[in-house]
Amino acid sequence: xxxxxxxxxxxxxxxxxxxVLPPAVLTGFALARWRSRVKPLVATIVLLPLVLPPTxxxxxxxxxxxxxxxxxxxxxxxxxxxxxxxxxxxxxAAVMSFPVVAGxxxxxxxxxxxxxxxxxxxxxxSPYAVFLRITLPLARRGLAAAAVLGxxxxxxxxxxxxLVAGNxxxxxxxxxxxxxxxxxxxxxxxxxxxxxxxxxxxxALVGGxxxxxxxxxxxxxxxxxx
Amino acid sequence: MNSPTFRLxxxxxxxxxxxxxDLETTERVLGLFGPSGAGKTSLLEALAGxxxxxxxxxxxxxxxxxDSAAGLRLPPEQRRIGYVPQDxxxxxxxxxxxxxxxxxxxxxxxxxxxxxxxxxVLEVLDLAGFERREVAGLSAGERQxxxxxxxxxxxxxxxxxxxxxxxxxxxxxxRLLSYLLRVLDEFRIPTIFVSHDAAEVETLCTLVAVLxxxxxxxxxxxxxxxxxxxxxxxxxxxxFENVLxxxxxxxxxxxxxxxxxxxxxxxxxxHCPAAxxxxxxxxxxxxxxxxxxxxxxxxxxxxxxxxxxGAVRRVSQVGQAVLVVVGLEHGGAEVVAKVSAEACSxxxxxxxxxxxxxxxxxxxxxxxxxxxxxxxx
Lengths: 226, 377
Fold this sequence. Notes:
The structure holds 2 protein chains of 2 kinds. By secondary structure, chain A is an all-alpha fold. In chain A, 72% of the residues lie in helices and 0% in strands. Chain A contains 11 helices and no strands. In chain B, the strands form 4 sheets. Chain B has a 6-stranded mixed β-sheet, with helices on both faces. Chain B is globular, with a radius of gyration of 22 Å. The interface between A and B is medium-sized, with 19 and 27 residues.
């Protein structure tokens, strides 16, 4: 599989978003609903990758996934083949966008009234059914925003990606890495081309998200029918 | 038959006080009355299972919903409760039809044929044709009716109504009250009705518990409890009235004749405005206590249409005024007159004394129609 940087970036970001959404949304829900004294601690740990330099996160991943690492092939008993592959790039981008997605999802769930959820229970829904039929639909716009932000974060990921996945053209060289590469070798035309296409892509994404997340047009309540 | 409908021994810790309710009764429609801040809504939420820190015992018609001593706490979805909270809590992402059907009995655990069909409820609540409407576009009164419809359609074993008539205008309030009377009578659902409107409580409830700052002040039949010296100021602030129920015998022109008591009982005849009444229906009339005049001898030459003989049953002093409970000679219904202490002593009012009640027909207002006539309602 040989992909130009832009396409590779899109695939990696899409993969990272898909990987990160389920755990991040559940984490966001837990943070929004869970009451505990250790909650601030957990919330801080969740937000950590947002504050740490991406290269630090990349280094941590590298040492975890390396041959002798805690999650490396020797410990696991098989080789997940993550280092210096597109899967590794996807994992690095997912880890880096996790705090953004979980934080946005948490805010989305905090806006859903717990009284509405309680009413769902009273009307006979199990907690699980309440989550699927009431909480998720009511939080859907905030969750869509979380996905868009997570995708955007993954799309521009550089520091962690380059450490975990390297810089192999056509295999792990995403747009962000390719721009760095082109600057290093003084390929001004290559930089400009990548810059313009990334800008166009970002514009389309942000515009699309804006359209997608626009509040529904609701007609003003008119005079009541007789 | 004598097993209690409600066995309630509840403690609900709140930020500033603990709401408590200790009550066992065979009555089916219980009113919770009291000023705001009395803890009424918190008690309803505890009954619904929304307050995990509530302790005690909740038993409704033999079903135990909570018994903290035995470590039993049914989750809300197993309590079979129809709850109409004050803020209605309609689901904003569903239309009216889907909201009303939200609690439709599902699964084998629930009884097969719905006793209360959504089409019928929508029709009675004047919501027919609303099914596709968005919840966000509804008025306050419409939201209230949709919430009530949703609770009824869920086939509840216990109805919790938190000020269900608060946002409605007078005609709609009357219609909804009439409908509630009919529903509670027909389906015999145990109901707890929270209100700060004394007349509503008298109309709907056979038993009222008066709460203030989380404490139970008194419990008993509304007409008795509300007249107790410590309670009457609260009841009066909440719009206490005489509530009289009877069968309409005639309604023509502007006036109607209502015979108090159940059909066949030769109760006293009242003259009242005919608006909203047809012969044969059961009318629930409100009559403010201060609009009832007392006469020590049969009065003559008055414009008032109602002159009713009776005898004083109880007298109680409330502040500067005196409440005189008069039992009517025909049928025995009780009417409360609020008179000044001076007038009371001048007329020589005391227990057992025969008096005549003088009431203008315009003093009556129609609270609702339907339900069962006669005492016990």
